[in-house]
Amino acid sequence: NWILKERFVKIPRSATYSGNEISLNGTQFGNLCKIIYFVLTKELPSLRLITDYFNSMIDIFVKLNLPITWVTPSGLKISYTNIKFESTRIKANLLLTSKTTTIKLPTDSIDKLQMKRSFMPNFIHSLDAANVHLLLSNISNLNIPVYTVHDCFAATPNNMFTLEKLVKEAFINIYFKDEGYLLKLHKHFVDTIISATDPIDSITTIDVKTELLPLPKT
Question: What is the DSSP string of 60-89?
Answer without folding.
Answer: HHHHTT--EEEE-TTS-EEEE--EEEEEEE
